[in-house]
Write a structure and sequence with these properties.
The complex is a heterodimer. Chain A is an alpha/beta fold. In chain A, 51% of the residues lie in helices and 9% in strands. Chain B is α/β, with parallel strands linked by helices. Classes of the chains: A alpha/beta, B alpha/beta.
């Protein structure tokens, strides 16, 4: 164990308090969880499936899905597994549980029972408890992960791991800054150190558990260097606590060159920073998220967005792709629409994955080199501010705006950074806020945006930001004036 | 003219909220933006404090129906009889015809109901007209 790892006796003391937060937490023991996990067949283990995908050069498909009631949730997952042919399954958690509002989740369960359909936007795993969650993990054949957006996910993690989920999404930055308004960053980072320490404990006892920091953040015009820096920092925080199987994520931006550069550089940079920090014994994989911003309402157009993401994920050799649905513009999809997104993605993946298209493309390499330099600027600033303590460095960097996520709701995010697409659709920086990018990098961004402004005959402005946010939902990549 | 803006309930969709703040400010309104995860009471408190003429509620995550129920009654109970209420976003769980959604939320007391592709310039014009109308017979 390294010096930043939580002391075991402190973890155990905190654990008692965590389990008391809701009645379903009482009586959960680490021994029982490890014993239960040890009996799960290897082909159902998420960490092993991700490793195998890397070794075989495969891209695995995974949907998002979750409803209020256990039986309906099982039916939904089985449908996605059979009809959708999903390689990996999710259990998406509802918005009340994400805010630890278990009483409201309980009301949502009651109302859903009365209505006969789900009034919650996900599966309230804490309310259903270990017994209910084990019914879910036992009912499916594929590896299954908990996906959510929970700043304090300690109790949810205890229940999930004891119930046989073998992967857990999230992180102290990526599940706070885009998902909360008033949760202090030092609190969420500390709470996620608990989660990672718990995962580390399962690993120490021979149970591989995959961890996936949430890559796309706000999912809207996030420049790769910002999401990469945060993914690498969350990866380091997880490794410090004993996590071994790590999947870092990136959300499709739309420009193919930039997306390929982002996917390849994320893998390379993560290895570099992890090794520099002294970590060797870990298994790294990459997840590519199909476009996380606004979708076209027209289902044929939505499929086109989905398929472009699938093409790039396969070309980039990502081990996993998170699949959107043709109902994305309208909100939560039907099971049929969800399966349709999976099938369409599968068709593309199997047609592209054996081809080597990106390889040594010079434009991709040039863009990857830019991302590398930008990430270095941010990582250096975080390290300097931390004075040897990574978590402290991150908190200080956000406070100073050295790390800043565009459009995020958190009051612990400065929100000074504004991105705009350049004339080819690359996501560039318009307002840098306090990001510690050097003058050479900034003059490049500025020049690229001026080129677009000239073509469009209008000044670089907030109007361009707005136009770009809605461009894809209106059928274009770049938000050109009418 | 003051208007209150926010995303209701446990919803943390923040991108559109920031766009709306910039747009309505540009259109000449003074926007009190409460951001994401705003309760009904917070909307009403802000409207009373700022003497706002309208509350613009967003909901993107599917719980809009639960979260918006009773907002009009609560406004009236607290003395905001003439406040204009707008709501927009992805208001219900699952794909539903928009006229059905519009009927449901108008029945709850919202003056206008918007979906994702509605034109913001038109919404700003409508808002000026609706505020004038509500204040004329006040």
């Amino acid at each position: 164990m390294n010096k930043s790892s939580l002391a075991w006796k402190d973890f155990l003391a905190e654990r008692e308090e965590v389990l008391r937060a809701w009645p379903t937490g009482s009586g959960i023991t680490l021994e029982d969880g490890i014993r239960y996990q040890s009996k799960i067949p290897k082909e159902k283990n998420f960490a092993l499936a991700m490793r195998k995908a890397r070794e075989n050069g495969k891209t695995l498909t995974q949907p998002r899905a979750g409803v209020a009631l256990i039986d309906q949730h099982i039916l939904l997952l089985r449908y996605l597994e059979s009809e959708g042919d999903a390689d990996l399954l999710p259990t998406t958690i509802d918005a009340y549980t994400r805010q630890n509002r278990y009483e409201e989740a309980a009301k949502g369960i009651e109302k859903s029972q009365a209505a006969g359909h789900s009034l919650l936007n996900g599966f309230p795993a804490v309310n259903h408890g270990v017994e209910g969650c084990r019914r879910v993990t036992e009912a499916v054949r594929k590896p299954i992960q908990v996906r959510h957006g929970t700043p304090d996910a300690r109790l949810l993690a205890e229940i999930s791991l004891a119930s046989g989920f073998t992967s857990y999404e999230g992180g102290g930055i990526s599940y706070n800054i885009p998902y909360a308004k008033k949760v202090p960053l030092d609190k969420s980072i500390r709470d996620w150190q608990y989660v990672d320490r718990l995962v580390g404990h399962y690993e120490e006892n021979g149970v591989p558990i995959n961890r996936e920091p949430f890559g796309p953040l706000t999912g809207t015009l996030v420049p790769p260097f910002i999401s990469h820096t945060i993914a690498i920092l969350e990866g380091l925080l997880a490794l410090e606590q004993g996590v071994k199987s790590l999947t870092l994520g990136y959300g499709q931006g739309g420009n193919i060159i930039q997306d390929l550069a982002a996917a390849s550089s994320l893998r390379e940079l993560a290895h570099e920073y992890f090794r520099e920090a002294g970590f060797k014994d870990y298994d790294l994989t990459i997840v590519f998220h199909q476009w996380m911003g606004g979708f076209p309402e027209d289902e044929a157009k939505a499929f086109a967005v989905i398929n472009l993401g699938a093409v790039v994920a396969a070309m980039a050799k990502a081990e996993k792709i998170i699949v959107k649905t043709p109902h994305e513009a309208m909100g939560i999809p039907t099971k049929e629409a969800n399966a349709a997104g999976l099938k369409s993605t599968r068709q593309i993946l199997s047609m592209v994955e054996e081809q080597s298209v990106c390889g040594d493309n010079a434009a991709v390499q040039k863009e990857a080199e830019l991302i590398r330099r930008e990430v270095a600027c941010l990582m250096k600033a975080v390290a300097a501010g931390g004075e040897g303590d990574r978590a402290r460095g991150i908190v200080r960097a956000f406070a100073a705006g050295l790390l800043d996520v565009p459009f995020a709701p958190s009051s612990y995010n400065r929100g000074k950074v504004l991105p705009i697409r350049d004339n080819e659709g690359f996501i560039r920086i318009y307002a840098k806020g306090f990001l510690p990018l050097d003058a050479e990098i900034m003059s490049f961004h500025k020049a690229r945006l001026e080129e677009r402004a000239k073509v469009e005959g209008r000044p670089i402005s907030f109007q361009m930001v707005t136009d770009d946010i809605y461009a894809i939902s209106k059928g274009k990549l770049i938000g050109r004036p009418k | 003219m003051n208007i209150v803006l926010g995303v209701i309930g446990s919803d943390c969709h923040s991108v559109g909220n920031k766009v709306l703040e910039a747009f309505f400010s540009e259109a000449g309104f003074h926007v009190i933006n409460l951001g994401v995860m705003v309760s009904q009471d917070e909307f009403i408190d802000a409207a009373i404090e700022s003497d706002a003429k309208a509350i613009l509620v967003s909901s993107l995550y599917g719980h809009g129906e639960i979260d918006c129920e009773g907002l009009r009654q609560k406004c009236e109970e607290r003395g905001l009889e003439d406040i204009v209420l707008y709501v927009g976003g992805n208001l219900v769980v699952g794909k539903t015809p928009f006229d059905e959604v519009e009927r449901k939320f108008k029945a709850m007391g919202f003056d206008r109901v918007f979906c994702a592709h509605d034109d913001l310039h038109q919404a700003a014009e409508d808002l000026k007209v609706d505020i004038a109308a509500r204040n004329r017979h006040a």
